[in-house]
Amino acid sequence: MSVRFGVLFVLVFIHVLLTSGQNQDIVYLQALMDNLENTPPNWVGSDPCLDKWDGITCTDSRVTSITLSSIGLSGELSGDIGQLSELQTLDLSYNKGLTGSLTPDIGNLKKLSNLILVGCGFNGPLPETLGSLTQLGYLALNSNGFSGPIPASIGNLSKLYWLDLADNKLSGPIPVSNGPTPGLDLLVNTKHFHFGKNRLSGEIPSRLFSSKMTLKHVLFEDNLFKGKIPLTLGLVQNLEVLRLDRNSLSGEVPSNINNLTSINQLFLSNNNFDGPLPNLTGLTILNYLDISNNTFKPSEIPPWLSSLQSLTTLMMQDTGLRGAVPTELFSISQIETVVLRNNELNGTLDFGDTYSNRLHLIDMTSNLISGFTQRGSRYSANLILISNPICTEGITAPYCNPPTDSNSTYSTPPENCFPSTCTSNQVSSPNCKCSYPYTGTLTFRAPSFSDLGNSTIYTSLRSTMMKSFESNQLPVDSVSLSQPTKDSNDYLVINLDIFPSGGERFNRSGISQIGFVLSNQTYKPPHTFGPYFFIGHNYDFFADASNRRHKSISIGLIIGVVAGGCVLLLLLIVSGVYAFCQKGKAERATKKNTPFASWDPDKGGGDCPQLKGARSFTFDELKACTNNFSVATNIGSGGYGMVYRGTLPNKQLVAIKRAQLRSTQGGLEFKTEIELLSRVHHKNVVGLVGFCFDEGEQMLVYEYVVNGTLKDSLSGRSGIRLDWMRRLKIILGAARGLQYLHDLADPPIIHRDVKTTNILLDERLNAKVADFGLSKPLGDADRTHVTTQVKGTMGYMDPEYYMTQQLTEKSDVYSFGIVMLELITARNPIEKGKYIVREVKENMDKRKDLYNLREVLDPTIGLTNELQGLEKFVDIALRCVEDTGHQRPRMSEVVKEIENIMELAGFNPNAESASTSESYEGKSNDRGHPYLKDSLFSYSGGLLDSNLEAK
Questions:
Q1: Are 676 and 749 in contact (CB under 8 A)?
Q2: Which pairing describes strands 641-647 and 653-659: parallel, antiparallel, or unpaired?
Q3: Of the candidates 595, 631, 590, the residue with the CA atom closest to the CA atom of residue 613
């Protein structure tokens, strides 16, 4: 009895100790710390409020704010956060090590007004409980890995001012209210809808907008939206920035867009808009207009453009413009950039006598300009007239040469002092003081200017930033801006260095305060820069990184700690016994479920592949299904080894690639193909049945694809004749396969070696994308590109990737464009020193039937009158092979275009073929089988290097 009473006393004592003190939030903060690493060293002591923990703000001894930016936090945010019932601000931005899903317990924070998790590593779906945060005014979850739909419950947040969900993996439609179900149309007080760079799809709901809304920014760029722009958008009279570019929107641009008289920036490019050019006469304060790469009806440059005297940037590439270029266009007082590439503008180009002195770029590449009149002093703008009649062979005028790099090399100059020579990791500030700056990048989503070389704009940016830091009493001595560039989404990206005052380093409190000013938009840049976000880097130079302060502890607390330690010790003993019991089970389960437990890193493959669904075969199993790898089942050989046809016990035909015994070539590619192919499941992607890593063997087991490669059929080796309908069906399937890899695979995958030998044809001529030996996944840290060694196949390779080593999804698009041209010409990309893109462009004449391409078309493609939609096919192919990635469409757009072409030609793009390959005037044979290609086990010195040496 006395023992039980003693235990009860200890437990009651601990409970009283932990809950009756002035600050009960210590319990929940300690629980949060258990799931986090790199918490501030001064998070010790019995009271976070009295002991002034870094990043913690209290009111009446309760935690009301947690702001911890850029301090290297890692781990997961546990549900204990929901117990801090007085919390009003939670900002954990710029800690990439914070991962896992956002706990639904976040919905318990009924007083939360700021939830800011910018630039972390969170993933998974957004919890519906976000809709319970009725006091929330600022919600910024951008630049994470969140997936799934936007919760409809967010529509309940009537006080919400800022909603930023951009740069995630969100998918599905935008939710709108329906009866008792809320939706985003209820957010009439919200000023910002930032949803760009996600995977949102469907039509933009008409009910989303109304005259009650007070929206200033609608940023929907780079998603998968389709359908028309809703007419209701024209009712949002306060709108200042509208970005709908890089989607699959179609139809005419609504005429009531002209009613949005507060618009400064308007981006409608890279969609499928048709009909006449929109009349924007009413947008008198418009600065930036980009309606490039649409299918508007051919027309002359509208006269109303010259009335937009606030216009700095005009982007109308590939919009069907024709006729002469009006002189008045260059006299717009603020105009800086005019891009009218890929149109049919003709006549003599004349700037006139009064062209704007702000002009810095005029790009009229690929038009029909035949002359250039220059009046008065020499023009100072960068004029580009390449691929116009005026630039015939032998012309050496500057405007007939390749353009120079337009990116600025601006960097903040010293303030009337000489830069100091600093030690390692230190940087000399604009005030010439050596210190450890806080660094990051400022990204402006819709700047009103395009001349990045104008230093005065950065002077104004620095000035306003310093004033903001000073007014918020932050320990900042100076700021430096450098390397302004435009990325593929037309965002302006600037490197930012912030230097400390009063010493060489910031402390954690200073970093968190600066991060909060930038993450919650307390700092407002000059109007010309538009909406922005900041991504801070971890700050690794805290002076107290290794010094934890020790606090004096009361006797009562010591007693409590001792008692708690006893309980903890008991729990550890119980946990240890349980863990020991589970260890044997775990080891047996690991041995059974982890077939790569014996993976040998010396083979060149690194860690064990992470597999999802691929079957592990033993050597004996594959030996049996190939009759001991007999000669009769051998269907080819390559530098990596042999390929065999096998039959599994379930009668499934497979192709087995067997690497040379003890060969180390292709170890990395072997692992890559297994990891990637085990994650992807799509009818237009070749299926990986399994693999063998047993008894020193490396083997990949694929589904057997009977009709070989697309290259075999185009060259005639397979005996299959491909008419126009069959070619469209094949290229649509291949496009859908690539779209799946880019948009739906998790993580997204860049193929890196798209070509006709890596597109396989099954018995019904369904296309399957194959060969993932060179592929690269896009992780959270490299969502826009991967910087990597150049690999691929010459002729198909993206020139931008070749020059910059930055691999993007648009690199696959370029290669796919080459495949499209190869499909209609049956010519190799490079043949007898001639490049297929140049051959098509030189023969093409848009004014003639079939674009005058009969001489380059494959004679077996069919009769001329059967090639309906060929012109549109060529148009989209040439868009795919534009020089720079941002000019190319996404694969989702390519799929939509090909579907439209098939419908135009009278074919159902979703219909399955009714017959097998035996009806296609020939049968496949083993000699043309895709698994004979060496590239499927290629290594870093493989196909690309051999091609380069041949050159």
A1: yes
A2: antiparallel
A3: 595
Query: Where would I find the H helices in 44-152?
Result: none
pTM: 0.62
Catalytic residue among 185, 497, 753, 771: 753
pLDDT of residue 923: 41
Nearest partner of 798 among 774, 778, 780, 782, judged by Cα: 774
Under CATH, which number does the domain 603-704 receive? 3.30.200.20
| Domain extent listing, the chain | 298-403, 427-536, 603-704, 708-950
Q: Does 88 or 917 have the greater pLDDT score?
A: 88
Q: Give pLDDT tens digits for 102-159.
A: 999 999 999 999 999 999 999 999 999 999 999 999 999 999 999 999 999 999 999 9
Tell me the β-bridge partners of 344: 322
Task: Please list the helix, strand and coil fractions of the chain in percent, rounded to the nearest 5, in that order.
Answer: 30, 20, 50
Q: How far apart are CA 491 and CA 241, in angstroms?
A: 13
- pLDDT above 60: residue 951: no
Q: Which of 752, 586, 744 is nearest to 669 (CA)?
A: 752
Q: Distances from the Cα of 887 to the Cαs of 259, 292, 335, 813, 876, in angstroms?
A: 29, 9, 22, 11, 12
Report the run of H or E that residue 116 belongs to, with start and end. Answer: strand 114-116
Q: Is 405 a catalytic residue?
A: no
Rounded distance between C-alpha atoms, residue 808 and residue 265, angstroms: 26
> What are the Cα distances from residue 297, in Å, to 245, 273, 895, 896?
19, 10, 22, 19
Q: In the structure, what pLDDT confidence band is assigned to residue 573 with cuts at 50, 70 and 90?
A: low
Token code pair at residue 733: 């399937």
Report the C-alpha gap between 235 and 184 in whole angstroms.
16
Q: Quickly name the fold that domain 298-403 has.
A: 3.80.10
Contact 97, 73 (CB under 8 A): yes
Helices of type H across 24-66: 25-34
pLDDT score recorded for residue 719: 79
Longest dimension (CA), the chain: 108
Nearest to 755 by CA among 737, 770, 743, 741: 770
CATH topology of domain 708-950: Transferase(Phosphotransferase); domain 1 (1.10.510)
DSSP letter for each residue of 297-313 = PPEEPPGGGGG-TT--E
Residue 16 phi, psi dihedral angles, 5° rounding: -65, -40
- Mean pLDDT of the 546-551 span: 38
Q: Any idea which fold 427-536 has? A: Alpha-Beta Plaits (3.30.70)
Angle at the Cα of 329 from the Cα atoms of 323 and 335, rounded to 5 degrees: 140
Q: Which string of b and e fits 847-860 if b means at least 16 CB within 10 Å?
A: eeeebebeebbeee
Q: Decide if 274 contacts 320 (C-beta within 8 A).
A: no
| pLDDT (average), residues 763-790 | 73
